[in-house]
Amino acid sequence: MDRPLSDLLVLDLTRALAGPIAGRLLSDLGADVVKVEPPAGDLTRATKPRQDSMAVYFVQANVGKRCVSIDLTTADGRDLFLTMAERADIVLENFRPGVMDRLGLGYEALSAVNPRIILASVSGYGHGNVWSHRGAFAAAVQAETGLTADIAKRRGVTPRNDPVSQADVYGGLHALAAILAAVHHRDRTGEGQAVDVDMAEATLVANDMTTTNLRPDHEVTDGFRSGSNWPPCYQLATGRWVTVTADPAVEGSFRAWCNALGRPELREDPRFTTMAGRLEHAAELDAMIAEWIAKFETAAEVEEAIGFSTILVADVRTAPEIHETDWAEDRGAFVDVPVKPGSAPVTVPQSPWRFSKSPTGAVPRVGFRGQHNREVLGEVLGLSAEQVDDLEARDVISARLPSWLSDGTASGEK
52: which residues sit within 8 A by CB, 6+ positions away? Predict the structure, then answer.
């Protein structure tokens, strides 16, 4: 069976994370995604740890793609890319606004050679506005859009950066949605177009507290409040941690805790009779719950003792721990990606969808910079070995392969 997007060719110019995630997911849905890197390569290739000279961080965002390397700052490199764009469906880029035009590869240049092409641009703050010139690492966007402040406030700490690059991930996911919509529009009308996606708005939309925080009265001290999705974590008798999806300050959850603890008298305690009081004395209430939970050995035991189907108790797991669960095996939640024949693979998370009539998911391959130059240029453009040799001799294309590949036996590179 064909994959959903098996008829699409994507030229992926992106680096780091927001753009590469969108490209990886297009590949997971079946598109032929060709990652086009400059001679310096994607900056995430320099990260550690590595497996057989391959950065594992790079693998997660670029699994399934074929890798070519073209110097787009040269006239021949630009012309080569435009020739590839004639045959492509989508060009994906995450340069700062204006860079594609300076390279001679903006939407006007691309659409001139291919009116059906879709140019998807992912940037920090979007094109054509007063912040367009700004750089866009995830930490900066998260700080600017309120997410860092929200996390710090809830944790009761001074602002600090989240170690997870949420703004990049949100930007990449929204780029995927926009690209699919643009493809559908093109299929209906025959027209390609430019799509502008920014990480800042993606983060504002993804933060479910954004609209609440715009309200002057968002500090609710009675009733069910938004933002109660910060359930506390407690330690079991075994030393492991669990989280419980019941905010003790909220009335319904407080009643459930009183019942579970066998302390109905707490409902008459002046400290806890109102939500405002429970918030004021949260540390005391939390200590009581922690002492009770410390008697149990598993999350399932705690959940059963609480006895409400709407209150869940979950283990606080590490990535290696969830990888070893029966769920991960049954679902196929991880994919092993071989880098070097006969060596240990790199394990990456699988994409989260399953189709009833179409195969999807990560194609278990990954490339070094320029590893697929000959394969792609031969297939897409029909170039001969001699023509590729000429491009290589003039440094229009290049490759950087580990020693065990540099003899060309596995890659076709010279």
Answer: 339, 340, 343, 402, 404
Half-sphere exposure of 171 (CA within 13 A, CB side): 33
Percent of residues in the chain assigned helix, strand, coil, to nearest 5: 40, 15, 45
Output the CA–CA distances (angstroms, integers) from residue 303 to 98, 312, 371, in the order listed.
Answer: 54, 6, 51
Does residue 403 belong to any structural domain of this protein? no
Burial profile 298-307: b = 16 or more Cβ within 10 angstroms, e = fewer: ebebbbeebe
Same domain, 260 and 189: no
Tell me the HSE value of 397 on the side-chain side, using a 13 A CA sphere. Answer: 24
What pLDDT is recorded for position 299? 96
Q: 119 and 15 in one domain?
A: yes
Between CA 353 and CA 362 the distance in angstroms is 11
Strands 66-69 and 334-337: unpaired
Peptide bond into 49 cis (omega under 30): yes
Asked whether residue 174 falls in the same domain as residue 248, the answer is no
What pLDDT score does 414 carry? 32
Residues 6+ apart with CB under 8 A from 211: none
State the pTM of this model: 0.92
Instruction: State the residue for tokens 């700080």.
Output: 143
Torsion of CA 230, 231, 236, 238, to 10 degrees: -40
Domain termination residue (choose one: 315, 342, 377): 315
Residue 36 lies in a domain: yes
User: Domain total for the chain?
Assistant: 2
Q: Which long-range contacts (CB under 8 A, 24 or more apart) does 182-189 make?
A: 182/118, 182/120, 183/8, 183/89, 183/90, 183/118, 186/116, 186/118
Residue 353, SS3? coil
Question: What are the average pLDDT values for consecutive 10-residue runs of the chain, which has 414 residues?
Answer: 93 96 98 97 95 96 98 97 98 95 97 98 96 93 93 82 91 98 97 97 93 78 60 93 90 90 94 91 93 96 91 94 97 97 96 95 97 97 96 96 71 35
CATH number of the domain bearing residue 359: 3.40.50.10540
Phi-psi region of 227 (alpha: psi -120 to 50; beta: other; left: phi over 0): left
Burial (CB count <10 Å: 0-12, 13-18, 19+), residue 88? buried
Distance between CA atoms of residues 69 and 400, nearest Å: 9
**pLDDT for the residue numbered 407:** 55
Could you tell me the residue range of the domain that residue 20 belongs to?
9-208+326-393
